[in-house]
Amino acid sequence: YYIDYCLAQTAALEFWSLSQKDYKDAWQRYLRFVSFGGKKSFKELCAAAGIDDPFGEHALNGVARTANAWLDANG
Asked: Is residue 51 part of a domain?
């Protein structure tokens, strides 16, 4: 189960990162993501939502940059 939680957190952080730049777009992507739940693989859900493949080598780079900027501004 641990890998499931890691994958879910990776996707959640990606949606959070997107929401920092364009909340409406992030919300629409999230709705696309959940609309295919139970019908597509996790990687296909990510592709449908236009978020990074969590298995990709640089999957968290953008999220890390956004989180770092957020912490600098709010930490």
From this structure: yes
- Give the domain range for residue 46: 34-69
DSSP state of 57: T
Q: Considering the domain boundaries, does residue 9 fall inside one?
A: no
State the pLDDT confidence band at 33, using cuts at 50, 70 and 90. Answer: very high
User: What's the predicted TM-score (pTM) here?
Assistant: 0.87
The answer to the question of residue 48 being in a domain is yes
Statement: residue 59 has pLDDT above 80:
yes
Number of domains in the chain: 1
Cα distances (Å, whole numbers) of residue 24 to 9, 16, 27, 68 = 20, 12, 5, 22
Are 27 and 5 in contact, with CB atoms under 8 Å apart? no
